[in-house]
Write a structure and sequence with these properties.
- By secondary structure, this protein is mostly helical.
- It has one domain (7-139, 182-211).
- It is built from nine helices and no strands.
- The longest helix is centred in the middle third of the chain and has 44 residues, at 62-105.
- The radius of gyration is 20 Å and the shape is globular.
- Residues 200-212 have low confidence and may be disordered.
């Protein structure tokens, strides 16, 4: 990760992302990957994938959690707060405006035609974004096999999402020696992240105990 990223640069980017992050979680994650990894090179490929895998396991919106994680990784707690806030604030304002416009003019034929035209375009963006993320993460035959298993389990067997995740995690544990060859853990600097998380957890615990 670059050390010369100013807080002002990050602030401008998270604000911009809040206005252009269309396409749902898949589209938002793809935009962050293209901007932060490929164009700006603020974060490495392995760091991004590691953060994405971690956020996928957490309940809640994984795209926003990914933004918070990356913001925290670059500028600490205030970086995370700014990234998480600006990720949703512009979208909230846009939704309020679009919602009001739909309430006033949503029944007009021209508005209905515009919405019907947008639907397939958004679907195409989501599919392309999912392809880009899969192309970056599934770079080992075993990873592709686990992804195929998850797809079949959800689509055909109708297993619930938590069960699929648990089974995929168990498969990863069984195949850990083979999968270790597919992931370069040396580029993640996990010890630095773990130290910061432990420090933040200790500070939060102490503040909470003093409060009560």
């Amino acid at each position: 990760m670059k050390d010369c990223i100013s807080f002002k640069q990050a602030l401008y980017y998270w604000l911009k992302l809040g206005f252009i992050s269309f396409g749902g979680p898949a589209g938002q994650i793809a935009i962050m990957h293209q901007d932060l990894v490929e164009k700006r090179k603020w974060i490495s490929e392995q760091q991004f994938i590691h953060a994405l895998n971690f956020c996928m396991l957490l309940p809640g919106p994984e795209a926003q959690q990914l933004a918070i994680y990356i913001g925290w990784l670059m500028h600490g707690k205030w970086g995370g707060i700014v990234a998480g806030t600006l990720f949703i604030l512009p979208a909230l304002l846009l939704m309020l405006g679009l919602g009001y416009g739909y309430m006033m003019y949503g029944t007009l034929p021209i508005v209905q035609s515009i919405l019907w035209g947008i639907k397939p375009a958004v679907l195409a963006l989501v599919l392309f974004a999912a392809y880009r993320i899969a192309n970056k993460t599934l770079h080992h035959p075993l990873l592709k096999g686990i992804a195929l298993f998850a797809l079949i389990a959800v689509w055909q067997v109708h297993l619930s999402f938590p069960i699929v995740i648990l089974l995929a995690g168990f498969a990863g544990w069984l195949l850990r020696h083979q999968l270790h060859q597919a992931v370069d853990l040396s580029a993640l600097d996990i010890r630095h992240v773990q130290t910061n998380i432990q420090s933040s957890f200790i500070k939060t615990t102490l503040l909470s105990s003093n409060f009560y």
